[in-house]
Task: inverse folding
């Protein structure tokens, strides 16, 4: 039945003279996503719309699934193509379409015809009423409702005739690469992959930083993070994952600073290192999966204390979300199953019995002076020995 | 000359299968559950095989469970699903020509109080769809049918069966024994409404002792093998890494150049049937062309005892099967399947199965046909008929 898809895109329609940049980026992302799908496709722009045409047999479900991962797409409309062979032929095709696609249940419909080519012998209004009539004659289970129809039957007259009525929701957002770059602090948890996804959705290219502490954290924990990055990359495009060996820094802080401040101070150093990589690679902000109140290090005081070291903006897309809301997104983007595998990450290994929940920033800074002897060197080593993996 | 025409019984391993298995035995030999690197290395083979299998079926790799073979997969699917869903209903449906690895679990469940309906088949071995429709009741929780029959190669109408079941009640689970079909057909469980699928590696040039069960993530099924909790607790026991790795390699090769391989098998089948039909007083039980499986040809030779013919061909280096290799354990000399499809009583004991693989050559078939032309008249001369 369907050989093409009409792609409806959202905000990038409003952008004025930047519109063509966004459209080109969207076309590129669509091509990229469809490369993995069985079948040959062409993607074209035509008069402010984007069409995907199948040039061979293709797997419908796989294709739709792939398109649903392309940020910038708001709606995917499977279209039937027909040749212009006169009104009667068109009516027959339309009736066949309605029967096949919408079945025999009782529903209301409206015909919405558009002529892109003005030399077609009937006006849109005439097409609406004449096609509507033919449909009513042939399919008694349907009634017309011009205000709130169950089915909006679109018939577009161009070189060929395109018929579509279903709109499959796309992910929304903006095409990857149209809104700069940011650096995600990725742990193996549920929240950070979701945070990465949400920012990527706004058209931001993302890279990531992961802190591991062998032998306290395992290879499996690292593999889990690589797997999570790979899942996110299906939406966001390839991710450079910087794997930082944090063991020596962690042990040094454990040695020199009060135990209940360990987590906060650790996170401050992680942010410093992440910011280094961000600046080094042209990222204009950091991303974290922090959410208020979930753990001791995420109270407002703790967040303020951690944030204090950053000189570039930190984006926290799930800051106001409940755990359940975050889980729902994780399930939707398929990171949940991988995230809940139980391998230790850096932050859980050295947790003090009673971590401070309302840290005083001056006290924290004073504790940090205990590290002044070796910390700069340890940070330099950690950065230099970082392993960068391209995940795609 | 060795002409092996018993590929439905088992197949020769591919070299790629052997090579990867040796690696897992001699180099990456860790226990996948071990927390150290050797464990992780070993686990990778399992994940990789799951991914290969999931890809050819377009499902999620978490829905693939490794078992000790087709029999275990069938036992697990049937008993495990019945026990998990028995509060919903106690009625099961299958066909009268299933493999013993399906029939025996069904009989076992009957002893436990379940009710089982065995749907009859027509003279080609195709399930009676009307009878199926009538049999589906409010109490039905599971239907199990084979995809391709191992004795004669009949292809069951899987999509129609699934349609009938799901239309009556979408909650009813549909299990398909795909042991003879996998690798010969592209199977997409999600599109066909299949909830569970059994596959065995040694039918597709993989090793013996390994298979898998595909179980859709929504399926409620109880584990049969309990122990250390491997495979998400669904199938305990240290995983058969060599087997799983070998199976992955076999599956990958089975679906490479699939169209060519499939066309080749149908070509061989047609050539063979045309040759066989020239011998007087033979009945080809298998459906020709695409109506039957591409690799199985069941033939009844009037006036010849099948086991005698088997040994006569063996003397010439040709290996075939008389009755399914599994029913030959039974004391009964006749096969239920052949009986069910109405093969004449006097021919039941005269039926031989020839089954090909992509390694079979036309020369081998020509040789076999020549031997048959020579040996059949001789055997007929000395029969009791």
Result:
């Amino acid at each position: 039945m369907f050989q093409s898809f009409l792609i409806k895109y959202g905000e990038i329609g409003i952008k004025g003279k930047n519109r063509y940049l966004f459209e080109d980026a969207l076309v590129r992302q669509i091509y990229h996503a469809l490369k993995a799908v069985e079948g040959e496709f062409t993607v074209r722009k035509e008069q402010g719309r984007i069409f995907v045409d199948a040039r061979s047999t293709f797997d419908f479900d796989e294709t739709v699934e792939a398109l649903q991962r392309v940020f910038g797409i708001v709606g995917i409309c499977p279209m039937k193509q027909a040749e212009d062979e006169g009104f009667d032929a068109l009516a027959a095709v339309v009736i066949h379409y309605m029967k096949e696609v919408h079945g025999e249940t009782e529903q209301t419909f409206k015909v919405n015809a558009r002529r892109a080519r003005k030399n077609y012998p009937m006006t849109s209004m005439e097409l609406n009423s004449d096609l509507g009539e033919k449909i009513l004659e042939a399919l008694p289970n349907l009634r017309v409702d011009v205000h709130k129809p169950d089915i909006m039957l679109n018939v577009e007259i161009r070189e060929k005739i395109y018929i579509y009525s279903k709109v499959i929701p796309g992910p929304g957002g903006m095409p990857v690469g149209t809104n700069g770059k940011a650096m995600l602090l990725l742990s193996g948890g549920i929240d950070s992959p979701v945070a990465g996804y949400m920012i990527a959705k706004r058209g931001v290219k993302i890279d990531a930083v992961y802190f591991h502490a062998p032998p306290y954290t395992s290879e499996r924990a690292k593999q889990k993070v690589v797997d999570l990055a790979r899942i996110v990359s299906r939406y966001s495009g390839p991710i450079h994952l910087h794997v930082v060996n944090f063991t020596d820094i962690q042990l040094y802080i454990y040695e020199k600073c009060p135990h209940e401040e360990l987590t906060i101070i650790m996170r401050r150093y992680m942010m410093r290192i992440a910011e280094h990589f961000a600046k080094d690679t042209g990222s204009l902000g950091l991303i974290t999966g922090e959410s208020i109140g979930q753990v001791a290090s995420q109270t407002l005081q703790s967040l303020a204390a951690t944030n204090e070291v950053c000189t570039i903006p930190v984006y926290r897309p799930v800051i106001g979300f409940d755990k359940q809301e975050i889980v729902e997104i994780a399930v939707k983007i398929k990171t949940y199953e991988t995230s809940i595998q139980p391998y230790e990450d850096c932050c859980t290994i050295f947790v003090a019995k009673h971590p401070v929940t309302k840290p005083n920033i001056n006290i924290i800074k004073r504790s940090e002076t205990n590290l002044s002897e070796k910390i700069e060197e340890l940070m330099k080593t950690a950065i230099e020995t970082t392993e960068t993996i391209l995940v795609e | 000359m060795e002409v092996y025409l018993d590929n439905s019984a088992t197949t020769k391993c591919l070299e790629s299968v052997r090579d990867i298995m040796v690696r897992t035995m001699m180099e990456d030999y860790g226990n996948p559950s071990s927390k150290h690197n050797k464990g992780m290395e070993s686990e990778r083979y399992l994940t990789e095989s799951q991914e290969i299998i999931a890809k050819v079926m377009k499902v999620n790799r978490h829905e693939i469970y490794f078992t000790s073979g087709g029999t275990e997969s069938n036992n697990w699917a049937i008993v495990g699903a019945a026990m998990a869903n028995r509060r919903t209903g106690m009625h099961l449906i299958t066909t009268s020509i299933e493999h013993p690895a399906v029939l025996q679990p069904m009989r076992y469940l009957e002893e436990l109080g379940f009710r089982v309906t065995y749907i009859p088949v027509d003279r080609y071995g195709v399930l009676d769809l009307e009878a199926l429709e009538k049999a589906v009741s409010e109490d039905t929780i599971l239907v199990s049918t084979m995809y391709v029959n191992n004795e004669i190669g009949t292809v069951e109408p899987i999509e129609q069966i699934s349609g009938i079941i799901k239309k009556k009640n979408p909650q009813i689970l549909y299990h398909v024994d795909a042991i003879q079909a996998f690798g010969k057909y592209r199977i997409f469980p999600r599109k066909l409404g299949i909830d569970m699928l059994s596959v065995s590696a040694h039918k597709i040039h993989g090793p013996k002792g390994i298979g898998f069960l595909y179980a859709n993530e929504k399926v409620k099924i109880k584990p049969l093998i309990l122990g250390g909790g491997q495979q998400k607790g669904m199938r305990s026991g240290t995983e058969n890494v060599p087997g799983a790795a070998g199976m992955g390699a076999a599956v990958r090769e089975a679906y490479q150049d699939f169209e060519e391989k499939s066309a080749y098998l149908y070509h061989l089948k047609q050539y063979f049937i045309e040759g066989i039909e020239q011998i007087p007083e033979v009945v080809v039980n298998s459906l020709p062309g695409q109506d039957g499986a591409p690799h199985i040809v069941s033939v009844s030779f009037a006036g010849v005892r099948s086991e005698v013919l088997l040994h006569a061909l063996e003397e010439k280096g040709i290996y075939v099967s008389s009755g399914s290799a599994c029913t030959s354990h039974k004391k009964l000399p006749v096969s239920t399947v052949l009986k069910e499809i109405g093969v004449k009583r006097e021919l039941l004991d005269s039926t031989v199965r020839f089954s090909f693989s992509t390694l079979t050559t036309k020369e081998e078939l020509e040789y076999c046909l020549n031997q048959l032309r020579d040996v059949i008249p001789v055997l007929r001369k000395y029969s009791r008929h």
